[in-house]
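ok trying this again, last paste got cut off
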Amino acid sequence: MKYLKDLKLKELNNVISMAVFGSYGTDFFKDGISDIDILVLLKCRDDVMDEFDVEEELIPILKDYFEYDDIHLTFITMKDYDTIFANQYIDSMDKLILDHYKEIDFRIYINKYNRENEWLDNKINKDLKLMEENRDGSLL
C-alpha cells in the first residue's frame, strides 16, 4: 500500500494539502472495485473551474503514483471548516501537506468550531433521547 504523505510533490497551484479518506487503507477496500477518495484543500475556489483545473493536473499524478485508475477527489476550502469533510480531514492519518501554515490554520478553524459547538451537539442528543424515551423508542 502506498501512502499519500510519501508522494514527492513540492507545490501544486491552489492546493494547501490533501488527505485520504474512505476505504483505502482499510479492510473494506476492494482492489479493482473501490475508489481511492482524496480530500483536496484548496486555497480558494471562485467557481467550479478552479476544481477542474486542479483535477486536470492532479489526477494523472495520483493515478501514476498509486498505480490505480479509480481516484475520486473531493474539494474543500478554508471556509468549509464546519462540514463533515472537515472532520474527515482531521481524522485522516494520511495527509500530504504543501502549505504548512495554511493547513495549520484550517485545523485550528475546525477544532475551534467543534469545541464551541460541542454544547449544542450535547443538548440536541439529550433532547433526542428524551423524545425517544417519551415515545417508546420512536422519534415519530
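PB: full thing came through this time. The chain has one domain: 4-115.
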